[in-house]
Amino acid sequence: MREIVLGSSSFIRRQLIEQLLIPFQTDSPDIDETPIPGETAAHLAQRLAKEKTDVVAKRHPGAIIIGCDQVSTFQGQIFNKPLTVQNAHQMLMTFSGKVVLFLVGICVFDGKSGEYQEALSQTEVHFRSLSGEKIRRYLSLEQPLDCCGSLQIERLGISLCEKVMSDDPTTLPGLPLITLINMLAQCGVSLY
């Protein structure tokens, strides 16, 4: 089987791709994720996914490279990883009782053919009305400071949600596997 590299340092993304039972390795791209002024959330997610793919592809010639990036957006504003408890608390207070869109840009590069495949997957999250105390407890238990939108959906973050709508349940944790399976098939990778 060809070398497959996930361009990410995310533990959750690694867990997700492990579900496919294919051999792969990870390589962290370490790129600047700052939005370009005026950039939309969708463009940012897709641009960063491709940039991550390009960085990792240079280190793994001929491999199949998977890059992805997730952003959330509410009322035209982009929200990414909070990095601090204060930012996370403010973010979740903003999302309280609202509908927030989470976008994942995914890019697969076939190092053999030189072809790219790109897609955007989205999830609509309806947040419950959240008290400041509930948010503080969640943040102290989970520490979701490196999670897009402060939402660690695969753990206690689910308690913050009233409804989650998506075509792919793995989009919100950060790697849309349904899309990825189709992209890998185009590269000649069969799961079984």
Q: What does this protein structure show overall?
A:
- The chain is an alpha/beta fold.
- It is 31% helix and 27% strand.
- It has 5 helices and 7 strands.
- Strands 1, 2, 3, 4, 5, 6 and 7 form a 7-stranded mixed β-sheet that branches.
- A hairpin with a 4-residue loop joins β5 and β6.
- α3 crosses α4 (132-142).
- It is elongated.
- The N and C termini lie close together (12 Å).
Helix and strand layout, with pairings?
Blueprint: E1 4-7, H1 11-18, E2 25-26, H2 41-59, E3 64-74, E4 77-79, H3 85-95, E5 99-110, E6 115-127, H4 132-142, E7 161-166, H5 177-186
Parallel strand pairs: 1-2, 1-3
Antiparallel strand pairs: 3-4, 3-5, 5-6, 6-7
Helix pairs in contact: 3-4
Short description:
By secondary structure, this protein is α/β, with parallel strands linked by helices.
Give the helix tally: 5
Secondary-structure arrangement, i.e. CATH architecture: Alpha-Beta Complex
Order of helices and strands: EHEHEEHEEHEH
Task: Say what the CATH topology is.
Answer: Maf protein
- Cα radius of gyration in angstroms: 17 Å
Rounded to the nearest angstrom, the distance between the terminal CA atoms is 12 Å
Helix vs. strand class = alpha/beta
CATH class: Alpha Beta
Average pLDDT taken over every residue: 96
Q: Which term fits the overall shape? A: elongated
